[in-house]
Each structure stands twice: as structure tokens, then as C-alpha cells.
Amino acid sequence: MSDSDFLAVEARDCPMSSCAAPAGSPCRTGRGKVAVQYHTARFRLVPHFAKALSVPVPPLRRPGAAWTELPRPAAAGSGPLGHVRIGYARASTARQSLDTQADALRAAGVTRVFAEKISTRAKVRPELDKAVSLAREIGASGAAVTIVVLEHKRLGRGIELAMLAEQLRAAGIGLEFLTGELQGSHDPAGVVFSVLAAMAGAEREYIRDRTLEGHESARARGKVIGGTAVADDTMLRYALHLRGQELSLRDIASRLVIPAGKKKGQHPSAATVLRMLRDHDEQAAATADQAAALTVLSHAEIDDQRLRSQLTARP
Q1: Which residue of 87, 126, 175, 193 has the smallest Cβ count within 10 Å?
Q2: Which residues are catalytic?
Q3: 279 and 242: one domain?
Q4: pLDDT, tens only, 224-237
């Protein structure tokens, strides 16, 4: 489920009589709380989720909180219900002041500003997350939303900014920079978002290629890539013995003990036992096929030698 898929569910009224949440609002429980999952009768109305077993309510709807009715989404073909601008300010160190950024944002007409002092290298920025969550919630109600910052460096650099832009574009949230190289307002469908998305895609491909190269280099030096194997020959022989007694995979797993590694002393899962036995059967079948092929070849060589002997013995 993507960040904006829940909007497709909330585009319809919930048909459950115990919920009856109107379009634009999450489903609710009988005790008046925001439901953890949307009701089946509701999300099954969306073709994309017709075969889903469950669809969770996103964190921005605050599952478990007291339920309140949200504005209905804008009708098809109508314009946005107003325009909301949310400000964000960030300083890298505690000694730096946020006053300049806050004053510039308020001068630009921003009434709600999220501010924090945190390094650009930080993976989690609580106030930025709050600003994005609020923007998504307001956007879900049908209003146009723009996040405003002094300059693009306040949001992040390189791949971080590109990945954030991808999230905002998926939610239909615009960006506005008051100064700097990207100064101006940028629509989610605009060229700036497209360039940033391309940067994010290129960076992911670069990271993937470097990872694969590292794996190949490690394998060439004899290093094992991936988790430590939980099975050994003794466990395999015992598992084969138990399978011969027609025990189920779950029963076999409950009688095996992992001999080494982080899970030493624990029982393997039934899936691990299945994979171990399947790999053994495939290897045994391949060995049998190879032996059969060698036998056929050997018989062919014997027949050929006999034929040569017979031809040589003829006067």
C-alpha cells in the first residue's frame, strides 16, 4: 500500500452500519475510536484492493484516537478547497538561530511553522515528519497544500531531497523555496519534481550496482554473503530420518536444534526444514541423473569397443 492509496478507500462512504464513516474520514470502531483497519465492505469497493485481506489505516489518521469527521474530498472536476501553506525551518547546530528562517516564513504568509535544530545527516527529523503528515492530512480533505522553506538545503541535500520530493509528489504536495537556486513555487507535476525524482532513481541504481559489485568481490575472496546457515549434515540426516517416519514439517522442525550461529539452540522454522529437504532432494536428483548419464555413456563405450573387436576379428 503506497502513501496515498488510503485516499482511494476514503473516496467512498463506509457501508458498514456500525461505522458509516463519510467520504474523507477513516473508519471507526463501535467505541468511537479511529479503526486500525478499514472495514472490508469499504476497501473492497476499490478495484485495486478487491482481493486484499486487510487494508491498514495510515498513521496520519491516528488509529486508536478519538474519531472526528474530516471534510469530504472535493467532488470530481472541482478545484481545490483553498490553499494551505505549511512552513519548515531547520538549523544544523544548537548554536544557530532559527529566527531568520521563521521571520522569512511568516513574512511570506505562513501561519504554521515546524522548526527543529538537527543535522542534515540525521535520518529522522521529527518536525519535518510532522509537517509532511499534516500536509497529507490537509490534502486528503481536498485543499491544495504547499510546504514552504527558506531554501532547499533546509530540507536536505542530494538523494535525501530527491527522496522527499518523491514522497511529496505522490501525495500531491507542492514545494516553495523563498531563496536559493530553486527559488519559487513548484507544482508536484513540475519539472523540478521530475528532476529530483530522476536523481533519486539514478542514486538507487548506483547504490544497487555498488552493492552487487561488493557481493561479487566478497565471493571471489571466499566470503559468504547472506545469513549464516542454520543446518549442518547432522541436522539434515536427522531430518531425513524423521521424514522417513512420515512426520509433518512442523513436527520435524520441533525436534531439530540449530547447532551454531545467532539462533544456536533454537528450533528451525518449518519453512527452513522444507527448504533444506528440497535442496537435498534436488541435489540428489541431479546426482542420480548425472550417474545415469555416465552409466549410459559407459554402456555405449562398451558396445563401441565390442563392435570394434568384432570388426577387427573378421578376416
Answers
A1: 126
A2: 92
A3: yes
A4: 555 556 677 888 88
